[in-house]
Amino acid sequence: MFKSDTARSVAAVFCTIVFSATAVVAAVGPAAQPSASTVAATARLTA
To answer: What's the confidence (pLDDT) of residue 36?
Structure first.
């Protein structure tokens, strides 16, 4: 499939970047958006 070591290296770097970005989004995405119950509980505590 690959004809040179450079092509393999570029493909490995590309896959590493894509995998790392996907892992970060999967970890941060759910934590960044609070659910409605969390917002309601916070509003009750501050009111």
So the answer is: 56
pLDDT tens, 23-35?
Answer: 888 887 766 665 5
Distance between alpha carbon 7 and the CA centroid of its chain, in Å?
26
Amino acid, single-letter form, for residue 2: F
- As a whole number of angstroms, the distance between CA 7 and CA 24 comes to 26
Euclidean distance between CA atoms 13 and 7, whole angstroms = 10
Low-confidence ranges of the chain (pLDDT < 70): 1-2, 30-47
Whole-Å CA distances, 28 to 20, 40, 43: 12, 22, 23
CA distance 39 to 47: 12
